């Protein structure tokens, strides 16, 4: 700055002092923006999974530290479908988006209510909040929501044997009903988790490919899982063990199927039966001896 004092200093000094103030203001603005971002002034509450035809509420909570709100917007993917502007009347604007039905009477600047949700509504939802002048900050948060057809059937469990020798390697197969997203299968032996040998998703045989080609619905998949485990004496309690498979889709569906396994081992005859047989045998021998003695004596005296 001293070099400007040697020239026609006032004008030049005025220009550069003004420029210095402008730079400082920009730096302060950036610091304020960073401070706001660190506080995360916007948060969303979006359910991870909901049932088809449910009414769903998405929440957008914000705290801009006293700054006025300019707009609150909701997006599905890149497309805006809901806008709230407090300075305008009406405050709410809804833009048509396939599969999304907004309940305008119940929706507010913080709560967005969707009616009769369909599987094609599955996707990422984003809330964007903008502050008014002079800063016009914009903050956003998002979350993913699945809309699913909850299966109604139980899983199907099969084992290659149900009466086992100790040490036998049991093979089991479990299939969960078709759904999107596909179900997850876990295995239990006497209530304790065991590792599966394989798990895959396949398209159901009776699925109508022509209908799926003309709809936006995702293709439901059947989950198939297998297990192979050695069964030893420690697994049997009272001669029995239990193997189970559990099929689940988020928190909306959970079904368990079990098979009771019997230990294959020789069973001794009941002691009461053996006791009676021995007793009867001894009695027969006793009477045979007496009968023989009497018969012998009669023959001797008859002579």
From TrEMBL:
Keyword Cytoplasm: no
UniProt keyword Signal, yes or no: yes
Signal peptide (residue range): 1-26
PROSITE patterns reported for this sequence: IG_LIKE (PS50835)
Pfam families: Ig_3
InterPro entries associated with the record: Ig-like_dom, Ig-like_dom_sf, Ig-like_fold, Ig_sub
Highest taxon of source: Eukaryota
Gene3D superfamilies xref list: Immunoglobulins
Every Ig-like domain range: 41-137
Key words of the record: Signal
Coiled coil: none
Protein name in UniProt: Ig-like domain-containing protein
Originating species: Phyllotreta striolata (Striped flea beetle)
